[in-house]
């Protein structure tokens, strides 16, 4: 189909380039510089879809992001839902279709890159129209660091849609001159295709830059398609312009009905006529210019219908000169047509003499005045004020560090807009500490300012016929009508926020850019209140839709969440370890041999630890260096037992409680010197425990001479476990007497490991398995070499690397709890059977007073016990409930507790579990039941220690 | 200890080639095994004494660092907090530097802790170093705001870092990252360079 509505000349399009695209299955062409909407209009297509509630045909209404109806689904090059045709730049090969409401997301991952970038500036200018450009240039000449963002493909703002002359030359020349100067000024960043979509505290503004969308299939794969700019500005100037406001009347939603200013934009920017014969319906002067421009371009403009009693004389005369009839004191009361408007009905306004009439046309252009774009201003906590002359909310009080300029203030004439831009730019530059700004000569426009005030008209008077559906649409995307608004107020709703939620007006992709103010006006009319007393609905980010892909940026896939790895990680990977995520850490889970499943691998690893020798990577354990004269007494307050009595060279296990007496962490404390300790924490709590220490040191006990330093990653930690561990250690530490007499349980020694060269090491006799074990600590740099040396020396003993699963089984066989697995912030040390670790002598420690509460001493608290399934092959699911009946009664069923850990044990030759059970310790020997699938499985309650109850194995 | 050089591995040893491949868009080089000592002290006399022992005065202002040459060779002192500093010196000098600092500290309250292997160091320079950092770091690194010597603890994408401006004029930076996050940092840097490398090729 040829582009029959494209004018032979004019517009900011590249006529040399023909772009092929398909819409709703129809192949068409357009030019570079077109939007999808302008290309459709050039092809005579207005209709883009249907309304979501009533299925009525809908078309292109506006020329920018305020368009309420032209939602399209992009299919090629990559599926993307719910874009507005008015903001999609045309490219070759584009395949799109119109939408009724929702679209579809791609089922395959988006191959495009997205990223983010931080930028800082003295002055951020949002909007590169005349006011914004003058503001930016004023600030830039003052030496300020300036960022200018503009939504359009090129600077110019409203000038892009006019034929205005500035200083007697085309406005584009003036724009180009300013942009060139800005680009050539160091410290100035001009970003086109960039929408500031959110304004937050302290000058923080987010903007989305569409960097390669317009290239379509030619977009380079290694260039981020969209970028979120994270802008921090000392001062922000909002020159965001104005949106034209429609007027509501019956059947105001047909394709072919557009905003007048938008039609003018299609003419001047794209060289497109919106149709063949137009009627213009206006309440203000601005639409006259559209009528005259379109007539001059060859369109048959049948009539200007002006709701005001008297038409503006000069403009009306210019219309008459072009054979455009001007009918003042009239309004459009309805339209005819199906997929396109075919005629409009006009009638005199109430109290005006005149005659009703019907005029044939295929285009109806509407203007109800202009709404300043105050979205970002409002997000910045700027106060809005209702201007009854404009019929719009305007900035009524600027928040700190925010200025407004141009038609965003409600200014209607060019001279005011650029003057405000200069003033705002100068004020912002000065406030940001830049030098006094150089004078920018303000351009003079050849356009006339409005001669006659506009009429504020929300809707044309008149009601739908009895029984007929209301077709006076307020929000075209939500298919919400005047009746819907009146139904809301009739139901007693007075707040606009409530009406918005009741009617859903303003909740679609456009966030009510064309419907919000009208709704406010209708509500005020219905309630008989003044709009100045109504608070408009809150403007929230984002100003225009932003895709989740853009927000995610590069934080996806492997970069979504950092994987923390130890110094030994490369070895684990090379030796086939499977990994478990513990917080952000990657920990080896188990090391399967070829053909082994998890059960087989874990049984083998456990056997090696109990019968031979095995080793694991314990480097993730949190480690905190604690020094100072008061370190001992500080530890006495942190832990439930007495740490200050620990001798230098000794190690003690400790439990840490919150102020509520519940266990928050456990670990070992090593006394390195009188004033120096090394504290270990569980892997997941390392940061929490350090914060906990700092909190107490900084807020409660600043007098203590104690300093806590994280050394977690300074050390590689390798537990060497099993009856043969002493032999392996001896082979590597010739200078260390590792015998029981010289090196007792819960003691540490410094030594030098012979790993080809000497490596200083600290060896601790700590056991989390019950076996003879040595925890070897070397700097992380030496970890890999020491691990490999241990593997080599241990080879003849069958040394076996093991992972977290085996560690869990070994400790569970000994009844050692894991904080966070056996505990959940409601478990006390006593519940864990660790009264022995709670000092009765210490005057105070964190959590102590809670132990005296009645609740803490209830005999039916959940206590840690062991469970042995009667079927020794059955492994209970972790998290399963424990009940005391062998048949489930009607709910609610009394739960006694739950299984916290459950494994298959090589040492026991059967399955076993740990559980917290009400009055658990009194129930030892009882048979309880656990629901497993549809069955109720009998289990025997036991002590929590299953293996080597006497502790005979820890000395080898 | 100098005898063990052959048997120690730095956190980014496996990334040497991949980081080198980012040239010329970004020069990213690990500076492994540097001596790093965490110093906690607030007594001004002790601070001055420790600076004297190093031959490099401790930074007097928040978010700055100092560097110089003294008895232990080139030394940097990074301000990390109101009473916290990181002393960075050449590899294999932790024992003498720690001894000297501890002697100078006495009798004031404070500690000197060897944290050399806690973090590794990556030197960034090249035409896009500042750009690459701006993709993940919210701190303003414009030379007028962050002159040479600026030192902050901040986030780069999703890892905490210590960031030092080595040369504001040429755009050279030093990033210290926890060893466990080093590979993430390297992967992130590589990914951040994709577009700059494409533009240069």
Describe the structure.
The complex is a heterodimer of chains A (956) and B (201). With 956 residues, chain A is an alpha+beta fold. Chain A is built from 19 helices and 49 strands. Chain B is of the alpha+beta class. Chain B folds into 2 domains: 14-32 and 117-200, 2-Layer Sandwich (Gyrase A, domain 2); 35-116, Heterotetrameric sarcosine oxidase (Alpha-Beta Plaits), CATH 3.30.70.1520. Chain B has 6 helices and 10 strands, in the order αββαβββαββαβββαα. In chain B, the strands form 2 sheets. A 5-stranded antiparallel beta sheet of chain B has the order 1-7-10-9-8. In chain B, a hairpin with a 2-residue loop joins strand 4 (73-81) and strand 5. In chain B, helix 2 runs antiparallel to helix 3 (94-105). Chain B is globular. The interface between A and B is large, with 52 and 51 residues.
Radius of gyration of chain A, in Å, reads 38 Å
Q: Outline the biggest β-sheet of chain B.
A: 5 strands, antiparallel
Largest sheet, spatial ordering of strands of chain B: 1-7-10-9-8
Outline of chain A = elongated
Distance between the termini of chain B: 44 Å
Strand content of chain B: 25-35%
**What is the top-level CATH class of the largest domain in chain B?**
Alpha Beta
How does the helix and strand content of chain A classify structurally?
alpha+beta
Number of strands of chain A: 49
Give unreliable regions of chain A as ranges: none
Give me the oligomer status. heterodimer
Helices and strands of chain B, in order, run as HEEHEEEHEEHEEEHH
Main beta sheet of chain A, described?
7 strands, mixed
Number of helices of chain B: 6
**Which fold name is given in CATH as the topology of the largest domain in chain B?**
Gyrase A, domain 2
> What is the overall pLDDT average of chain B?
95
How many H/I helices of chain A? 19
What is the number of strand segments of chain B?
10
């Amino acid at each position: 189909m040829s582009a029959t509505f494209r004018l032979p000349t004019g517009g900011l399009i590249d006529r040399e380039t023909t772009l092929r695209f398909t819409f709703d299955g129809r192949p068409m062409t357009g030019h570079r510089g077109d939007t999808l909407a302008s290309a459709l209009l050039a092809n005579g297509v207005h209709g883009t879809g249907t309304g979501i509630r009533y299925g009525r045909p809908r078309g292109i209404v506006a020329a920018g992001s305020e368009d309420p109806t032209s939602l399209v689904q992009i299919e090629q090059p990559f599926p993307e839902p719910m874009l507005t045709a008015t903001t999609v730049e045309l490219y070759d090969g584009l395949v799109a279709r119109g939408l009724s409401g929702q679209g579809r997301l791609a089922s395959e991952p988006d191959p495009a890159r997205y990223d983010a970038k931080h930028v800082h500036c003295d002055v951020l200018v949002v909007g590169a129209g005349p006011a914004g450009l003058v503001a930016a240039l004023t600030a830039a000449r003052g030496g300020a660091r300036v960022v200018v963002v503009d939504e359009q493909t090129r600077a110019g703002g409203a000038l892009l849609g006019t034929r205005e002359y500035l200083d007697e030359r085309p406005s584009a020349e003036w724009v180009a001159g300013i942009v060139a100067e800005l680009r050539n000024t160091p410290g100035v960043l001009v970003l086109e295709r960039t929408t500031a979509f959110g304004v937050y505290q302290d000058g923080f503004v987010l903007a989305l830059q569409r960097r390669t969308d317009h290239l379509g299939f030619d977009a380079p794969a290694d260039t981020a398609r969209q970028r979120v700019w994270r802008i921090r500005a000392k001062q922000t100037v909002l020159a965001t312009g104005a949106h034209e406001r429609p007027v509501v009347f019956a059947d105001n939603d047909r394709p072919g009905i557009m905003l007048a200013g938008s039609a003018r934009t299609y003419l001047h920017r794209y060289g497109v006529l919106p149709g063949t014969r137009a009627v213009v319906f206006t309440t203000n002067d601005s639409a006259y210019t559209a009528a005259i421009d379109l007539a001059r371009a060859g369109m048959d403009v049948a009539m200007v219908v002006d709701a005001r009693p008297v038409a503006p004389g000069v403009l009306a005369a210019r219309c008459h000169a072009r054979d455009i009839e001007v009918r003042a004191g009239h309004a459009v009361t309805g339209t005819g047509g199906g997929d396109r408007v075919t005629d409009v009905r006009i009638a005199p306004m109430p109290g005006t003499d005149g005659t009703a009439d019907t005029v044939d046309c295929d285009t109806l252009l509407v203007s109800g005045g202009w709404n300043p774009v105050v979205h970002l201003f409002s997000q910045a906590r700027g106060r809005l004020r209702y201007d009854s002359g404009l019929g719009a909310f305007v900035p009524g009080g600027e928040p700190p560090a925010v200025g407004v300029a141009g038609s965003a203030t409600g200014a209607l004439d060019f001279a005011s807009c650029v003057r405000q831009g200069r003033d705002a730019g100068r004020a912002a530059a000065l406030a940001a500490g830049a030098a006094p700004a150089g004078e920018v000569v303000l351009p003079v426009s050849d356009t006339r300012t409005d001669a006659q005030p506009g009429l504020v008209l929300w809707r044309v008077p008149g009601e739908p016929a009895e029984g007929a559906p209301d077709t006076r649409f307020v929000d075209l995307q939500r298919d919400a009508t005047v009746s819907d608004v009146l139904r809301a107020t009739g139901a007693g709703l007075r707040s606009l926020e409530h009406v918005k939620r009741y009617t859903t007006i303003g909740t679609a992709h456009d966030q009510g850019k064309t419907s919000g103010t009208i709704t406010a006006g209708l509500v005020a009319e219905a309630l008989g209140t003044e709009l100045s007393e109504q608070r408009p609905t809150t403007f929230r980010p984002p100003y225009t839709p932003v895709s989740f892909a853009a927000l995610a940026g590069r934080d996806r896939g492997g970069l979504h969440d950092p994987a923390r790895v130890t110094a030994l990680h490369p070895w684990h990977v090379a030796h086939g370890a499977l990994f478990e995520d513990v917080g952000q850490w990657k920990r080896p889970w188990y090391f399967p041999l070829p053909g082994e499943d998890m059960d087989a691998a874990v049984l083998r690893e456990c056997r090696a630890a109990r019968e031979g020798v095995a080793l694991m990577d314990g480097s993730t354990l949190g480690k905190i260096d604690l020094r100072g004269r008061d370190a001992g007494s500080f530890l006495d307050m942190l832990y439930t037992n007495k740490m200050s009595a620990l001798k230098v060279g000794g190690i003690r296990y400790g439990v840490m409680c919150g102020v509520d007496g519940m266990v928050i962490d456990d670990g070992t404390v090593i006394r390195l010197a009188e004033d120096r300790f090394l504290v270990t924490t569980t892997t997941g709590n390392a940061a929490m425990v350090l914060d906990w220490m700092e909190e107490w040191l900084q807020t409660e006990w600043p007098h203590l001479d104690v300093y806590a330093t994280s050394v977690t990653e300074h050390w590689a930690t390798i537990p060497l476990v099993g009856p043969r561990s002493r032999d392996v250690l001896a082979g590597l530490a010739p200078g260390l007497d590792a015998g029981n007499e010289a090196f007792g349980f819960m003691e540490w020694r410094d030594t030098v490991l012979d790993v080809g060269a000497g490596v200083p090491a600290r060896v601790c006799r700590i056991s989390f398995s019950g076996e003879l074990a040595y925890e070897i600590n070397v700097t992380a740099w030496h970890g890999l070499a020491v691990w490999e040396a241990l593997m080599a020396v241990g080879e003849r003993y069958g040394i076996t690397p093991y992972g977290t699963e085996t560690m869990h089984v070994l400790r569970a066989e000994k009844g050692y709890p894991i904080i966070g697995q056996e505990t959940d912030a409601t478990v006390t040390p006593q519940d864990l059977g660790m009264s022995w670790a709670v000092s009765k002598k210490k005057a105070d420690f964190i959590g102590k007073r809670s132990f005296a509460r009645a609740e803490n001493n209830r005999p039916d608290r959940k206590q840690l016990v062991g469970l042995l399934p009667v079927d020794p092959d059955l492994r209970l699911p972790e998290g399963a409930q424990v009940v005391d009946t062998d048949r489930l009664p009607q709910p609610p069923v009394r739960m006694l507790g739950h299984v916290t850990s459950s494994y298959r044990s090589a040492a026991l030759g059967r399955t076993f579990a740990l559980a917290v059970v009400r009055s658990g310790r009194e129930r030892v020997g009882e048979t309880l039941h656990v629901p497993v699938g549809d069955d109720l499985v009998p289990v025997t309650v036991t002590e929590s220690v299953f293996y080597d109850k006497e502790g005979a194995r820890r000395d080898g | 200890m100098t005898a063990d050089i052959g048997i120690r591995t730095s956190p980014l040893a496996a990334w040497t080639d991949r980081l080198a491949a980012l040239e010329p868009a970004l020069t990213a080089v690990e500076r492994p095994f540097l001596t790093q000592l965490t110093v906690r002290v607030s007594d001004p006399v002790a601070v001055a004494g420790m600076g004297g022992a190093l031959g490099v005065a401790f930074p007097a202002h928040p978010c700055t660092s100092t560097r110089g040459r003294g008895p232990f060779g080139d030394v940097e002192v990074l301000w990390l907090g109101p009473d916290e500093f990181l002393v960075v010196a050449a590899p294999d000098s932790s024992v003498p530097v720690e001894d000297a600092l501890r002697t100078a500290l006495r009798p004031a309250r404070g500690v000197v802790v060897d944290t050399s292997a806690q973090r590794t160091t990556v030197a960034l320079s090249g035409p896009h170093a500042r750009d690459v950092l701006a993709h993940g770091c919210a701190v303003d690194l414009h030379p007028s705001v962050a002159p040479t010597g600026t030192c902050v603890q901040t986030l780069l994408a999703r890892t905490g870092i210590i960031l030092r401006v080595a040369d504001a004029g040429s755009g050279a930076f030093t990033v210290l990252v926890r060893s466990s996050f080093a590979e993430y940092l390297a992967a992130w840097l590589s990914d951040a360079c994709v577009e700059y490398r494409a533009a240069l090729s």
